[in-house]
């Protein structure tokens, strides 16, 4: 049996293995608007892997919203990122959920380890 060549890593940023609750807003495969409470299984500056139940069409645009309590305001505190626009780039199906890979419209970082880019 021939060996498969190792797949080349295409991600520009590392992913952090954090389970983070997110609300996913978008349109399902029937074109109906939905809001689902889901879990981001890992997050990087360029995207996230999310476990959810809705079936989405290829290349769907969504909004990932991170629920949070009030954040301190004023000088010295950067704006907390709570809403991220993203596009579906890969789907892995299982019996109960799907793992959906999303690419953010704009990376959270301008370059590796540098300043945060502006988001919503």
Topology of helices and strands:
Layout: E1 15-16, E2 20-27, E3 33-44, E4 47-52, E5 61-65, E6 83-93, E7 98-104
Antiparallel strand pairs: 1-3, 2-3, 2-5, 3-4, 4-7, 5-6, 6-7
In short:
This protein is an all-beta fold and 120 residues long. It contains no helices and seven strands.
How would you characterize the overall build of this protein?
The protein has strands spanning 15-16, 20-27, 33-44, 47-52, 61-65, 83-93, 98-104. It is mainly β. It has a domain at 15-65 and 82-104: Thrombin, subunit H. Strand 3 and strand 4 (47-52) form a beta hairpin. The radius of gyration is 16 Å and the shape is globular. The relative contact order is 0.21.
Sheet/helix structural class: mainly beta
Mean pLDDT equals: 81
Largest sheet: 6 strands, antiparallel, barrel
Number of strands: 7
- According to CATH, the fold-level topology of the domain at 15-65 and 82-104 is Thrombin, subunit H
Strand content: 35-45%
- Rounded to an integer, what's the Rg over CA atoms? 16 Å
Under CATH, the homologous superfamily of the domain at 15-65 and 82-104 reads: predicted glycosyltransferase like domains
Order of strands, widest sheet: 2-3-4-7-6-5
Oligomer: single chain
Return the CATH class of the domain at 15-65 and 82-104. Mainly Beta
What is the level-2 CATH architecture name of the domain at 15-65 and 82-104?
A: Beta Barrel
Helical segment count: 0
The string of secondary-structure elements, in order, is EEEEEEE
The outline comes out as: globular
Percent helix, as a range, is under 10%
What's the end-to-end separation, in Å?
A: 50 Å
Residue stretches low in confidence (pLDDT < 50, at least 5 long) are 113-120
């Amino acid at each position: 049996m021939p060996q498969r060549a190792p797949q080349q890593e295409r991600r520009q940023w590392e992913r952090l293995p954090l389970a983070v609750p997110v609300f996913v807003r978008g349109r399902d495969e029937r074109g109906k608007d939905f809001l689902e409470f889901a879990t981001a299984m890992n997050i990087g500056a360029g995207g996230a892997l999310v476990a959810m139940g809705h079936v989405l069409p290829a290349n769907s645009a969504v909004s990932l919203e991170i629920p949070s309590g009030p954040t301190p305001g004023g000088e010295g505190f950067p704006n907390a990122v709570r809403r991220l626009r993203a596009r579906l780039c890969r789907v892995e199906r299982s019996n109960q959920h799907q793992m959906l890979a999303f690419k953010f419209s704009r990376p959270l970082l301008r370059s590796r380890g540098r300043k945060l880019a502006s988001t919503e």
